[in-house]
Specification:
The chain has 127 residues and is an alpha/beta fold. It is built from two helices and eight strands. The strands form two sheets. Strands 1-4-3-2 form a four-stranded mixed β-sheet, with helices on one face. This is Glyoxalase.
Amino acid sequence: MPRALHHLDLWVDDVATAEGEWGWLLARCGWQREEGVLSWVHPDGTYVFMEHSPDQHGAHDRLRPGINHLATTVETRDELDRMRSESTEHGWHELYADRYPYAGGEAHVALYLESSEGFEVEVVAGG
């Protein structure tokens, strides 16, 4: 079956900071860094490319029209718990911490994180 999504381009303000934050998160979710470019590829072939473009204007705001957040997966709840415990040291802020891991509902096990630039990522355990 072909992948559902080909790739995502992330436009960031601070490439060095974003590379550290996103690199950690994507690696924990099974994505591999591609050699020589700011890109990570998932085992299904989907990739995320990161850059700071001269065409950018204004700060990222996930609450404005556009994409609100990215959701990815890990296989187990243990992996999710490890990500939660490590996330702060890698620049991520936990959202809805008081409702972890059921902030998305009782049948939905997930961790919600926000990067230093305000990007939200939902990491779902078990697909």
